[in-house]
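User: I'll paste a sequence; please echo it back and then give the predicted structure.

Assistant: Echoing your sequence first, then the prediction.
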Amino acid sequence: MLKKFFFLLLVIVLIFSCKKNDAGETADNNASADNNLKIYNATQYVKENGVYVFTNESDVEKQIKDLDKDKYLYLTFGNKVNVVDSKKIGKDEYFKIQLPDTTVYWAKRSFFAEKLITINQTDVLCYRQPDLDYATTIKLQPGDFGIYVKELNDWICVEFRAYRPVKADGERKWVGGPYWIKTGYTDDIMTAKQAYYLYLAYYNSLIKNNDVLALENLNRGLTITNNEDTEITYVIRDMIREISPDSDTNEPPKDEVTDSDNVE
């Protein structure tokens, strides 16, 4: 009887010992998770006009003017990177990114997006929630640009950088968001590059009343894709005609038009 008692006592001690070890491991894992952020998608794109990335983690909070040129790199809108790690440094979240040539840098997580969205159909309705009952009166048009936020089932949530009226024939206003849409968009990166410069042109023309700078944005949009058309290139050319009818829109001369060309 005494042997059975000691045997049961030993079993109880072993059980509690295992539970304690499991709890310790869980705590360690949680502590590790606090320092390393979850990476949702390894492929990311620069979503700003231009950003600095740093060779060393220890330099991320320093001023560029205080660093040697080999300690940082300048990336432009639409550049693709591969995220290999993530970490909170100071008050900000950072990605450890790898470029196509395998070099590695550190950059703020807020500089990047999983996808860059361009509207490619007319009258794309915005919704406040991923449900048809939450429709707004905002209708997006081809060329409108946005930053991917998340998706749910057949819906995609986007922060739009565009100017559209909130009612028919109304004044154009900042769209912002985020809003949900179901159809009428593409995440093609070359199309997004043109859409980004179209957004800048709208901003300079509509908000700053500076058509000269807007024309620079539009012409940059035509060349950013190495002069290859996307499905929204016609929107850029239309705006060039609108604000400067005599401007060159990089269209081929009439004697060079072929049967396969789209002629309006």
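The longest helix spans residues 2-35. The chain has three domains: 43-113, 116-186, 190-252.
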